[in-house]
From TrEMBL:
Domain ABC transporter as annotated: residue spans: 5-255
Name of this chain's protein: ABC transporter ATP-binding protein
InterPro entries: AAA+_ATPase (IPR003593), ABC_Ni/Peptide_Import (IPR050388), ABC_transporter-like_ATP-bd (IPR003439), ABC_transporter-like_CS (IPR017871), Oligopep_ABC_C (IPR013563), P-loop_NTPase (IPR027417)
Keywords for this protein: ATP-binding, Cell membrane, Membrane, Nucleotide-binding, Transport
Organismal lineage: Bacteria, Bacillati, Actinomycetota, Actinomycetes, Kitasatosporales
Membrane topology recorded in Swiss-Prot or TrEMBL: Peripheral membrane protein
Protein's cellular compartments: Cell membrane
Origin species: Streptomyces luteireticuli
Length: 336
């Protein structure tokens, strides 16, 4: 059976007066049902642009999308807006970082949860309201029957984030994309929200894409991890394996900036100097080469001239190759 969600050679380009911004530049990935995929990378790596493309939320006048996005067999990049509109909310839904922009200040929380339910199921106002109360209860809002008529400003930040999750999940979507869903929250509430997403996934069997710049968030939450850099996937695999035996110098850099993850294996990896490249004119060869401390371990000029591809399955888009990357990573640990 084909994977539930698959992206094949996805390009999301924004033509501008200065040239074409290649925000996503050839991304291929697969996600089965009941699994959570984490996508990590710095801002501008293409994480959010990818999720907006899946949901069909880019303005077609300013965006050029090529390649394939398939959800449950259905191709989405060429689907008409009316089809996408039906899918959004019902089959796929999104949780954003900032609940204040996602929730309208002018309507009660309950109404904002009930509306998409009414729209997609044709339920009565009364039933939709009951459903909203049920959803508030599910996401852990105390006294949901009393809070359902509150406005967003009457909720705390953590409660608003839960309300937004309730809104996203009200139609039992099969795909949930959560873009930095906990970034604005304190650590305790973060953990609660992530647990909540896992619980809801257990109940509904949905597939989840969790987008974050924080490796600490993914460690205990996702099954598989995709590392993105400059619009490209640079490493992919089961999360444990990527975090304990990473194979791409960029992933090493990300990990070295995460002391609480690496404290058990203390590796003096080189932190990442410099900044991500311009997406207007990405460097030739490996897009990471201007920042990479390991180019001398690759034969000849390949890092500067030849673009490394991400292999299918566990792997890294790097000319070092698995064996050399393993040795370098282990060597960095041993030299302490
Ligand atoms: Fe570094 Fe070369 Fe690997 Fe790119 S291909 S990450 S420049 S070693
Ligand atoms: Mg983002």
């Amino acid at each position: 059976t084909p994977p539930f969600l698959s992206l094949h050679d996805l390009h999301v380009h924004f033509p501008t007066d200065d040239g074409v911004v290649k925000a996503v530049d050839g991304l291929t990935l697969e996600l089965p049902r009941r699994r959570t995929l984490g996508i990590v990378g710095e801002s501008g790596s293409g994480k959010s642009v990818t999720s907006l493309a899946v949901l069909g939320l880019h303005d077609p006048r300013s965006t050029r999308i090529t390649g394939e996005i398939r959800l449950d067999g259905q191709e989405l990049t060429k689907a008409p807006e009316s089809t996408l509109e039906k899918l959004r909310g019902a089959k796929m839904a999104m949780v954003f970082q900032d609940s204040l922009t996602a929730l309208s200040p002018y309507y009660t929380v309950g109404r904002q949860i009930a509306e998409p339910f009414r729209k997609h199921t044709g339920a009565s106002r009364h039933d939709a309201r009951l459903r909203a109360i049920e959803m508030l209860e599910k996401v852990g809002i105390p006294h949901p029957a009393r809070r359902v008529d509150d406005y967003p400003h009457q909720f705390s930040g953590g409660m608003r984030q839960r309300a937004m999750i309730a809104m996203a999940l009200v139609c039992d979507p099969e795909l949930l994309i959560a873009d930095e869903p906990t970034t604005a929250l304190d650590v305790t509430v973060q953990a609660q929200i992530l647990d909540l997403l896992k619980d809801l996934q257990q109940q509904t069997g949905s597939a989840i894409v969790l987008i974050t710049h924080d490796l600490g968030v993914v460690a205990n939450t996702v099954d598989d991890l995709l590392v993105m850099y400059a619009g490209r996937a640079v490493e992919y695999g089961p999360v444990r394996d990527v975090l304990t035996a990473p194979r791409h110098p960029y992933t090493w850099g990300l990990l070295s900036s995460m002391p609480r993850l690496t404290s058990d294996v203390t590796r003096p990896l080189t932190p990442i100097p410099g900044a991500p490249p311009s997406l207007l004119a990405p460097p030739p060869g490996c897009p990471f080469h201007p920042r990479c401390a390991y180019t001398s371990h690759v034969d000849g000029d390949r890092c500067r001239t030849e673009r490394p591809e991400l292999p299918k399955g566990r792997g890294a888009a790097c000319h070092l190759g698995t064996a050399r990357a393993r040795a370098l990573f282990a060597g960095a640990g041993a030299s302490t």
